[in-house]
Amino acid sequence: MIRLEQVTKRYGETTAVNQLSLEIGKGEVCVLIGPSGCGKTTTLRMINRLIEPTAGRIFIDGRDTATVDAEKLRLSIGYAIQSVGLFPHMTVFNNIAVVPQLLLWENNRIVRRVGELLELVGLEPADYIRKYPSQLSGGEAQRIGVARALAADPPILLMDEPFGAVDPLTRERLQAQFIHIQKEVNKTIVLVTHDLDEAIRLADRIAIMESGRLVQYDSPEIILSRPGSKFVRDFVGADRALKRLSRISVKDFIKPAAAVNVNQPKKEALASAAGHRWLWVVDDDEQLIGWVDTKTLMQSVSTKEAMDEGDAVKISILESATLREALSRMLELGFKHIPVVDDSQRLIGEVALGDIEAATAEGKG
Ligand SMILES: Nc1ncnc2c1ncn2[C@@H]1O[C@H](COP(=O)(O)OP(=O)(O)OP(=O)(O)O)[C@@H](O)[C@H]1O
Ligand SMILES: [Mg+2]
Predict the structure, then answer these.
(1) What are the extents of the domains in the chain?
(2) Nearest C-alpha to atom 2 of ligand 1 is from which residue?
(3) Which is higher by pLDDT, 169 or 133?
(4) Which ligand is nearest to the CA of 8?
(5) Ligand 1 pocket test target in 7, 33, 42 with most atoms within 8 Å of CB
(6) pLDDT at residue 316 in the model
(7) Beta strand pairing call for 347-352 and 337-341
(8) Minimum-distance ligand 1 atom for the alpha carbon of 32
(9) Atom 5 (ligand 1): residue with closest C-alpha?
(10) Mean per-residue pLDDT, 253-271
(11) Which CATH code is given to the segment(s) 2-245?
(12) How many Cα neighbours within 13 Å face the side chain of 116?
């Protein structure tokens, strides 16, 4: 879909981008990452020809972009910039409508499209279309920026630190939303970030840059498990084994959990423990409601009496969680096993610390 061939950009003595070759497949999310000044923004802006390369060629769908009218090219590529870049004197509606208006869409179609996009990014159209950028929170402004980039439904989206200007919590939410939106729209996306965790979470492939050069271009799993150079190893840091866990779903690690019904007689409960010291406790709807220590149970009259009540939301994880979430929940609670529940808090199984450790060890090297 997008192919860079030996692309170089020089500013006098400075080489901002140095013989960069990179290929991004249709529907892929490529994340450019690297230290400040390594050439990420320059690379992005050469793709839509806001900056002309000094040497090398860039192809989109097999066509050399140098042969395409630059204006037309830009209208066909969505661009969300580093500092959001909404026009302050224009309403949210007009900000999102900029490109469709330039493309001379009919007004009805534009109105419909703006409504759709606001819904897509999780903002109620009626509440937002008349607002001005100064009346938006940082996170809302970022979302409007994303909506604007998507406005004319371009196949390609360039995003320069789209979630850079918000607090960590909002950022996490925007990332989750990004993943959700991308599932729906399936664009080819080149996204720049400073944040490795963000790259790991969002990327199909990560391009690590250093001083204008591409030093590694691989899936997050491979970048973390097999960094190709000292620079990459240092860049991804000592906790890369941990970071890898955030790419692995707990789904494949769920094993049957030892559990008892809260109303089950003590004897039966103990019999079903089969060597387990701890048992999860569920109610008649199979919903997780706590756990019981079999040692305490032996001294008690009933399962109910011996049980430690626990809020399922706090003591379990969802099937959709990652191993990293499972691990941090275990550390928080001091459990060696963590129960896994479905959306209705029904117990599905459990994940063991030992299995997570094994998964971590596999990627070492
Ligand atoms: N118009 C320009 N004139 C001269 N030098 C420039 C120009 N634009 C960028 N540079 C230089 O090119 C290099 C790459 O800049 P670029 O903006 O691509 O970095 P970046 O990786 O996006 O950095 P950041 O993470 O800080 O946004 C830097 O050394 C920068 O100083
Ligand atoms: Mg930049």
Answers:
(1) 2-245, 250-362
(2) 11
(3) 133
(4) 1
(5) 42
(6) 92
(7) antiparallel
(8) 21
(9) 11
(10) 91
(11) 3.40.50.300
(12) 14
- pLDDT at 238 > cutoff 80: no
CA 187/CA 89 separation, integer angstroms: 30
Report the nearest-CA residue for atom 19 of ligand 1.
37
pTM above 0.85, yes or no: no
Tell me which amino acid residue 238 is.
A
CA 51/CA 44 separation, integer angstroms: 9
Burial degree of 158 (CB within 10 A; 0-12, 13-18, 19+): buried
Atom 26, ligand 1: which residue's CA is nearest?
A: 36
The ligand 1 site (C-beta within 6 Å) comprises 11, 14, 16, 36-42, 194
DSSP secondary structure string, 324-358?
HHHHHHHHHHT-SEEEEE-TT-BEEEEEEHHHHHH
Backbone angles phi, psi at 97, to 5 degrees: -80, -5
The secondary structure of residue 251, as a DSSP letter, is G
What is 250-362's CATH superfamily?
A: CBS-domain (3.10.580.10)
pLDDT per position as a tens digit, 137-171? 888 888 898 889 888 888 999 999 888 777 777 77
By most ligand atoms within 8 Å of CB, the mutation choice from 15, 17, 33, 38 for ligand 1 is: 38
